[in-house]
Write a structure and sequence with these properties.
Helix content is 39%, strand content 17%. It contains twelve helices and twelve strands. Bound molecules: (2E)-4-amino-3-methylbut-2-en-1-yl trihydrogen diphosphate (10E) and iron/sulfur cluster. Isopentenyl diphosphate binds at residues 57, 90, 140, 238-240, 283.
Amino acid sequence: MDRMTAATSSPTPAPAKRVLLAAPRGYCAGVDRAVIAVEKALEQYGAPVYVRHEIVHNKYVVKTLEKKGAIFVDETVEVPEGNIVIFSAHGVAPTVHEEARRGKLATIDATCPLVTKVHKEAVRFAKEDYDILLIGHEGHEEVIGTSGEAPDHIQLVDGPGDVENVEVRDPDKVVWLSQTTLSVDETMETVGALKERFPNLLSPPSDDICYATQNRQTAVKQMGAEADLVIVVGSKNSSNSVRLVEVALGAGARDAHLVDYAEEIDEAWLEGVTTVGVTSGASVPEILVEGVLEWLAARGFGDVEVIRAAEESITFSLPKELRRDLRTEAAELAAGPADGDASQG
Ligand code: 10E
Ligand code: SF4
């Protein structure tokens, strides 16, 4: 460019600031069902209702349900005899069901049906005397529950680096299963390494990493490649939310952070940024994403483009114990007041 042109041309406009909003994001069918189960139980039986473990790994959800009368406990033995306890969406080991029976507790099992599916696979392969390699994160509630279905047959494989530690009885009778919320790519890497050691390794009958985990990762991959910064809304103990940060970085995002609330976003993250990707984990209510979008709009990022990777329409019916009681109540209401109630009117 010569001097004259430079002197007369208008300054280059700043690149437009924009937000890429991932879809699908937020609540999956299993989380929706579990949260509604706690709400309905509170309406049906009155507070308090006990919940073993965070119903889903989200601070806001837990706080909101606590305000409505839910009491979260770490172990079933903490629930006073005769009360109701709800098991979280992550699932529990059979020993937890036994503890509840011993404690004379009524239970509502809000385990996601897709986690139950993995439990059933574990039981089936253990019955057939397979060595089961469960790919997952040590200490995670779901892994503890699944392992508890067949503790003598299951060993945990926590990522590709753990493959060398695996020891099996018969290398021709080994199957892998997994936690539902893992990184798809990292899991395939782990499976590849396992197959090198055990060429006859059997795979699960259908994907253990659930549809919601896969779809949220596909969406974040699509936008991660274009984003300077990706903000994932989710809690620190939410495995699937943490995976979204990793997937975003792996897809090429320059920077990515996990936040529970908009207030946790650091203004410094926006330096030199024109494209911000936004998504949320499967346990995150949309109101928290809306807060982040408002926060960004107030800083010039008001232009929002949705990046849709998949349509989701899956829903699950409420836990059977709750459906039974809701049906009974509806039938009683339809039948009119019972004899004993008539005098109260
Ligand atoms: O830590 P996770 O991602 O397993 O749990 P979450 O509560 O954040 O999301 C819901 C996922 C469940 C219940 C596990 N399948
Ligand atoms: Fe179920 Fe998947 Fe949601 Fe977990 S993330 S609760 S397995 S739908």
